[in-house]
Amino acid sequence: MDDNYICYVEREMEFIKKFFREFYRRKMTPNAYAKYIGVNFGKNCNFRTKKFGSEPYLIYMGDNVRTSGNVSFITHAGGLSVIRCLYPEHKDIDLFEPINIGNNVFLGYGVTVLPGANIKDNVIVGANSVVTRGELKSNSIYAGVPAKYICSLDEFLDKNKNKFVYTHNLNPEEKENYLKRRFVKNSY
After folding, report:
1. In 28-144, which residue ranges form alpha helices assigned H by DSSP?
2. 134-140: which pairs have CB atoms within 8 A and are 24 or more residues apart?
3. To 10 degrees, the CA torsion angle through 9, 15, 17, 18?
4. Contact between residue 73 and residue 97 where contact means Cβ atoms under 8 Å apart
5. Alpha-carbon Rg of the chain, whole angstroms?
6. Are 62 and 42 in contact (CB under 8 A)?
7. 35/84 Cα distance (integer angstroms)
8. Which CATH superfamily is domain 39-152 in?
9. Tens place of pLDDT for every residue, the chain, 188 residues?
């Protein structure tokens, strides 16, 4: 057989394999995808993201970790290309740090978790926050860029106790009816 033909067939086979890998990845649930790529996580976790970065095996999470959508985990310093160009003696450097997340943690929509972040147990991180290197203490709420301490979970409960609604176990129709009765005003 012609060598060109063999190369063509090999390229086509690689394209087909890549296509099916991508198709399979897109069809996987976020939890199945996280497991498939090597994210380390405990029981009863619920992910709504597939953005686990290029070193997902450096992400460690405990039990009951939940994410909203568009949460990103980054385990490496990406700007080192500038250093590599300026300093030839460092042309091969990389910088990686693991991400550690404890038990019972919630990451709001659009949160970015950077290399070296250490989130302890019972933590809520507000939407679009950036968790940088360092530690978020247990039983706390954080938000902002970079994420800063807002209050303890006890303070949050006390501050909002009059606003809570008990709809978590209602079916969607019951929940909608309840919320409309409570919040929707007739405009006509």
Report:
1. 30-37, 80-86
2. 138/102
3. 160
4. no
5. 22
6. yes
7. 33
8. Hexapeptide repeat proteins (2.160.10.10)
9. 677 777 777 888 888 877 777 776 678 999 999 999 999 999 999 999 999 999 999 999 999 999 999 999 999 988 888 998 899 999 899 999 999 999 999 999 999 999 999 999 999 999 999 999 889 999 999 999 999 999 999 999 999 999 999 999 999 999 999 999 988 876 55
3-state secondary structure (DSSP) of residue 184: coil
Three-class secondary structure of residue 101 per DSSP: strand
Domain extents for the chain? 1-37, 39-152
Q: What is the rounded CA–CA span in Å between residue 93 and residue 23?
A: 33
**Which pairing describes strands 123-125 and 105-107: parallel, antiparallel, or unpaired?**
parallel
